[in-house]
Fold:
Amino acid sequence: AADLGRLVDQLETEDVPLEALGQLVSDDFAAYWQDVLTVLDIVRRQLPDELETLGMIGPSERRNQLISAEAARLAAVNPEAPFIAAGSTGSIPATARLLRSIAHLPNGAVVLPGLDTSLDEDSWQALDPQHPQFGLAELLAGLGARREHVEILGKVDSTSQSRAKLLSEVMRPSETTDLWQQSLPQLAPELERALSNLTLVRTPGRREEALCIALRMRQCAETPGQTAALITPDRNLGRRVSAQLKRWNLNVDDSAGIPLSRTLPGTLIDLVLSALETRFTPSSLVALFAHPLARFGRPSGAAARAARKLEMAVLRGVAPPGLHALPTALDRRRKEVEAKPHWFAHLARWTEADWAEAADAALMVPPAIEQLISLASADEHLNLKEAVESIIRTAEAVVADETGDSTALWSGEAGELLSQFFSSLLEAAPDGPLIAPADLRRTLMGLMAQPVVRPRYGTHPRLQILGLLEARMSDHDVIILGGLNEKTWPAQTQTDAWLNRPMREDLGLASPERRMGLSAHDFVQAVSARGSVYLTYSDKQEGAPAVPSRWILRLMAILDAVKGPDIEEGGRKLLAAALGLDHPTRIQPVERPAPAPAVSLRPKRLSITEIETWLRDPYAIYARHILKLQPLEELGLAPGPRERGTLFHEIFEAFSKAWPDKLPEDIAAELEKIGREAFTRWSGYPDVEAFWWPRFLRVAEEAAHIERNLRDDVRAVHVETQGRLKIPSGKADGFTLTGRADRIDILADGSARLIDYKTGAPPGITEALTGKAPQLLLEAAMLAEGAFEGMGKAETKALLYLQLSGGEPAIDTRYLDPARAKPKIDASVQEVAAKVFTRLQRLIARYSATPPCPYLPRVLPKYEGRDLFYDHLSRFREWSSFPGQDEESA
Structure:
């Protein structure tokens, strides 16, 4: 629709009547163009009638009529007073007619910007739409004049003349570049003068380019009276430069302004609609809570504090399935914290007030957004007026403070523009289309991206960021032309969505390359500025290789051919200075951290699973238990491997407790029954039902056979049994090893079989029996000491991992048999467990000795390529990337 609107505007601009669309013959083009032409024919027939009914004309047609009326007035009056038209290339036909009228007045004059009078006639005749002089050549032809009829205004200094000749050669049409052999030797003596105050800056990427530009503009700000402007069609580069300048408290006026959708009130509207569109995912809720204007009827800061509590309680990790589930999820989380405080250390210290704040946050969104929810959940398309009014009321409810005041939404320049935007939208709403609820955000934010906010005051008086159009009449001491890469400056030729090239030619529309010629003219005019000129480009954009502008490549080719001066030297110095802002001149490789806190600060208690962490990454124990740093989970995670493992554990625990002495007739059916009840907790997550449940059914079927074999010689089954073992150490109160055994089978001869359920991959046999994954071996050692509740001492005969994957096979049984280790271990399971326990005692002694052993990171990594929780604190990637930083062995 936007492309169609632009096509109609272009037809009006170039004086092509809509009726001309009917002259296009569809048989001349591919089949799909016939459908396009059918739509255009509807526009041709219906648009004029619709405009007549509304009593309106198109904006481009209105402009044409105003310009044509002025041209007709001047021709009729033929005034004697001076009339001067300056700065236009006559790219719009109506403007060209006005210029012709002025040129024929008794005292009329047309001042042409940047006419190339030195280009030879053959090249002038060979101009194409991409050339900067093409528009002026067409204008002169329309005025009935030739270049020799044009007089040079003012005195032109030698530097400007030399640079004009250089730029003429740089832009020479490709058809006559063979003339370089004659022209370049004549140009060589003038190059030094032509290139004075011209600097080329080549940077690795857009960030560095913006930094170089900002640094040069800062230098201008520090020079009394000096002015500077960045000229670029790349608005993202302009925003980058503006952000870099703020590091020195330089607020620079960007002529492009800030789109309303990016302002503070605009982003609030976006976040409200985004939360609605995503059905209030945790990330969208947290973003909405964090917005500076969001108060939800609370005092300043209260809503943000409450939202932070809610985020810590339930929005991180596995997310509730929707906004309605937040209170229930919060209640469930509080019960989990009370039952297992060691699992939720960051919540275990919460007071009643903390839980009350989180509960308040869970309830504060629905009242504010209730009306918009009901509107957007409708199956029918929405009336535009009703939708806009609902959005306004919702935004005001979100912004309102404890007194109900929502004026913050409409305050300031951005708030005033937002008010005008909604007023105009409501005014147009009766004639507007119906909108599908799914299109509400995209439609509204697309419209809000068009109006821009420009600061009225507070910007630097001598620094500016300009677009190509605004820069045409500017004059500064330092001109920086930024973003000189292909597809940026010049911009990539845009193919018309409605008309192909032959169709455009048949209609008499300008070719897409015409705009490239205008861009080239802007480039030449800016490079011809009287002050210092900097040309900047980057080797990469958004991580992808980028090509310098064709004009830069032509300039460098000419300089290489005539052995011209190095115009990159100043750019290299500027880049080095810019990079030096954020990078030290010398890099000293950091040593691997080796924190060694006092023995009294070290943990006196660890679980069996944490022992493996202690062996592999001692720094993680230091960070978690001594610095008390607990990793935060990601926002809004879907149920994953950890949750699946916990769910399967709960099901098998419930089964073993329900049938401790004998097995049911149909084991699979009993497991399925218990499983259905356990799975109800995850009923709001489609993936669980779609993927986990079928896998569990396969596990239950396979478990029926395995369980009968396991129970043959079992005297008693103990599940989820808690154990504690006191180990003497250098500390006064010793060291406590804790653990929870998934399942302990006491066999008929009084020995034990330890079983651990895994939904992921269990450790390898050699890895486990050599003590690198010591969980089951330490459980065996604890059982030998009678450390498990309700059980005496027992010798472990077998260690078994049951991998409940639900794949092929559904359950993989892996016995830790010392005879199968590589190399083979000639010892019983209990003897191997005793050796591993002895090593643990030595480890405890080392960390309790004087001086104590430091907590080194990554001493025995299992997966070096995988990032662990505390790697960013230990800076593992930094010190491990330098030679000579070899890891010590465990």
